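*Target chain*
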Amino acid sequence: MAKYKIAHVHHSGQDMIVFPLESSFGSKSDSQQQDIMDSLQQAAWSADLAGNVVAIWKSGNRVYFRAPPAWHSFFRSPNIWGWVMANINKELTI
């Protein structure tokens, strides 16, 4: 079983379940990434967490994410990684 430290936040009227992931997530195919996102979403719902899952990861100096299109501008914010890490408030075991 894997343990994930997550940020479960309510921002701009939206519930977000943000999973900081290892940089290796970025080297997976789109379909592999989507499969992982689907699994994370199912696990979040099973834990009664409201909201949509967002994956965020770093590679070198850059931060990448997979999020609903309406949230892209927020996740492109400067220091979004620091914001996510400062808002870690739950641990989810999958």
User: Anything to note?
Assistant: The chain is about 30% helix and 35% strand. Residues 16 and 52 are 5 Å apart (CA to CA). The chain has one domain: 3-93. Strands lie at 3-11, 14-21, 52-59, 62-66, 90-93.
